[in-house]
Records
---
Amino acid sequence: MSFEDFLNLGWKNIIHPDDFDDTATKFLRAIGTGESYSAIHRLRGADGEYRWHHARGEPLRDPHGKIIQWYGLSIDIDERKRAEDHLRDTGIKLAKASRLATVAELAASIAHELNQPLMSMLANAQAAIRWLNAAPPNAAEVKSSILRIIRDARAADETMQHIRALFKQESFVKKDVDIPDILREVVRVVQEDPKKRDVPIEFRFEEFLPAIHIDQIQIQQVFINLIVNAIEALEGHQADPLVVLRATTDSTRMLIQVIDNGPGVGDVDRIFDAFMTTKEKGMGIGLAVSRSTVEAHGGRLWAENNQTGGATFNVALPLTQATNDGSNSGLRITGAPKATTASDGLPS
């Protein structure tokens, strides 16, 4: 590329389209403020292949502080970046294996806790049948067996209540957070997976969204699961893939939607059942855990099929009391979401 071709944003032609906006923003900020410049992006070589580069720039100033010129470096870091991606993929696999091991351990503990009352109930039920079949039937023993069944059923219920308490919101670390910020962070985390970068993700946020009181880590995990599911649902689909994140509010809640233009879901209710999955290698616990997490925050998670195709997963979370009272001055909590495209075949 000649110097003349490089000028006037000609360098846009050699930067990967997915990396251009971030690079241009950082470059223009550096020019406008005189701060150092640093950006990581993919550059297209003469052979048409993209390689990762780290671009850096430093200003040279005169004794009065005026910038005379800029010095720049573009360092090929492709091998390092690919090694990092490989390590990240390995980490994801290890984390998944750890979660599966935790689930297996939890399931074994639950089975152990419930086994004793269930076996006792079975024994007493069989005893009741024997006393009924006796000649003559022994009503007193039948009654005693039934009372013991009731006792054991209550013991099993109490055990389940203790288990459910482990997942209640009391164990959460809640604070006021900005939903657009954590959703952008979630998308950044998801797109660190090279297999998840090809699906465009658009943001459509209502203006002046208030903060909500949640456990940030738990809710981010919910949206990581929903966004990854949406991207994976688009694999092999004929339409141009697109995922939209939308956030709006009314007087009592914030509604965050993950919308895709994929094939939709078969049963919008059963997909939240534990161990219900449409994936060949999935266990079907992600959506069940996500719904439990949202409900523990006093919210609701449900799915809908779009009329134009695809599916929408809705997360409704309660607004804080301060927001409900209107004490957050200047916040507008009603109105239409801000669209970023004119037409995309998704519900408006």
Note: The CA atoms of residues 208 and 332 lie 6 Å apart.
---
Amino acid sequence: MASDTISFARGAPSADILPHEQVREAAQRALSSDWETALSYGVGIGHPGLCKWVAERHGDLDASQVMITNGSLEAGAMLFQHLLGPGDRVAVEQPSYDRTLLLLQQLGVELVPISLEADGLNLEELEAALEQGPLKFAHVIPNAHNPAGCTLSAEKRRRLVELAA
């Protein structure tokens, strides 16, 4: 592939924007200060120090309520398995991330597609879906939607929270 070509084949960041020096420095610090923890399997919720840091950074949460995952796909898979089962109605944006849809389909849920607009989820369609019966879950990508690229507007975010309540 020519160097001036941008591949849209997969959602991986370009190597030139990855903070390799910062990662190298962080790894060096972790290995110097506590190599046994850094190289062990650790606990299921993730490195306790990282959980504490995330909790403090996001408003002094209780670190025991923070779980570190390998990424949003793993987090979603665990959340879906915990909350959903066969036949549950789940609202999903159309289009949506294909791996998320695959995870949901494997659980046997009923997918309820909701179209996207320039400012995110079509809330009229979501309200119509709610009139047809309860939704157990709504999977929404509010920022930099993959693959559509839209962002959910502030007005729609507020309405979505109202509907969820």
Note: The beta strands are 89-94, 110-117, 120-121, 137-139.
---
Amino acid sequence: MKQAPPADASDTRAGAAELDRKEAALYGTLTELPSIIVAYSGGVDSALLAYVATRVLGDQALCVTAESPSYPDRHRQMAVSLASNFGFRHEIIHTAEMARPEYRANPANRCYFCKHELYTRLSTLARERGIPIIADGSNADDRGDYRPGRQAAREFGVRSPLDEADLTKDEIRELSRRAGLPTWDEPASACLSSRIPYFSEVTDEKLRMIESAEAVLRDLGFRICRVRHHDTIARLELGPEEMSRAAHPDTAAAIDQALRHIGYAHVTIDLRGYRLGSLNEALRLRPV
């Protein structure tokens, strides 16, 4: 007697069909465009958008990476390597959000000023090159998150093809895996300024300390890690499966010594582990 398929087989097929439909929608959207600038950081989302845009539009897709003190050098190297390996038309520009007092003051909408600076530069580039569309890697999951940078995107008419196709983060990872993009399982990333609590000034010194401290953790084999900068205290957020290793005496000593050398007086491990946007928690506690 023929066995019935597993109970979830139909759900799996339906999920695959839905993902195929969304992928087709993404390709269809980009096919309608004459040319595009992709705001390309090299992260999971923008990497997939750059890949699909390049497949559809060829040299009419320009992938632009913005370099600034808040952009980790590790991410820049990833973006450059990926662009080279997959044939993206790629350029690097320099943005000057650190020259804006409102950005350095680090208000709750700091990201707005960063994106405003980025899209100001990209809009100028688009006019110079005769490119009608600027696109970013925002996805469907970003709709419910606190992302003031999206306001700047709306003001500049920036499109979000991944969001328009209703693609979630997990679906973007799966499409990236299918495409052979090494970013498919890359941990979530954000600018270095996101490690500094709101209303604490963003400075070059703090950004360099954070970047150096996170490099120490990666060199020790930690994959999911954030160093939250609280003046003289480094608060480490690690993936749940990695926290026990950080508490091993030898590893703990190595971390403590290296981060003290960088300039931190105290090193702590957040027992709740890494969580996206953890510094937003303070906004809910701050008096209005």
Note: The longest strand covers residues 61-67.
---
Amino acid sequence: MTLDKILASLFIDVREIRLDGNRLAGKGRVMDGSLIHVLGFTNHAPLGVDEAIELAAQVLAISSAADTAPILFLVDSSSQRMSRRDELLGLSEYLAHLAKCLLVSEAAGHRTIGLLYGGSAAGAFIATALACGTLVALPGAHPEVMDLPSMARVTKLPLDVLKQKASTTAVFAPGLDNLVKTGGIAEIWDPAQPLSAQLLASLEHAASRTGDARASLGSVRGGRSKAAPIAARVLEEMRDHG
């Protein structure tokens, strides 16, 4: 789906949503009249220090607003910007700041839902889509924390070995289906149905949930079997020795 079609399916009025370069910001109302704050990073652009600090400022402005309306974060990016300037300015700190701002917003009562409708990778993916309280996607989205050739360079393992591991272990593999299996993506929305209704359903589910469900989802789906029981054991040990 194109961005225009996504917005039209999400909101009954999009006049207050503006696209400034590769950044999307504004607010809209869904089919039941509820207000939704909208942020986004679009056009498959890289995320650098300038974009990250602007997005973080917008998230903090929403966090301090009088309402507790949710934030919908639309994502279509490449990776973080691989430039000398961005690295020297401390790009990793800017990305971490953006992710923490999204956590602050959740704590302030603004549910955060990431909608991945294009691509995203590496630090840009972690600081935007994965930093939201809930992440959903549309068919055709293509996320990757790290692609296999990059993983081969970092781990010094042959690419063929990583491909074999990726075929059986979801945490090794990029792509939409694997992120769903690991619980990183809660659900894939149906573009043939109104996205507004699916957003409201996701928000209702998020409101009924306590804590982060990603590890348990990964366990149920068979993509990440150890995270949930290990986390539960750590909490149990803390209670026993607290």
Note: DSSP finds eleven helices and nine strands in the chain.
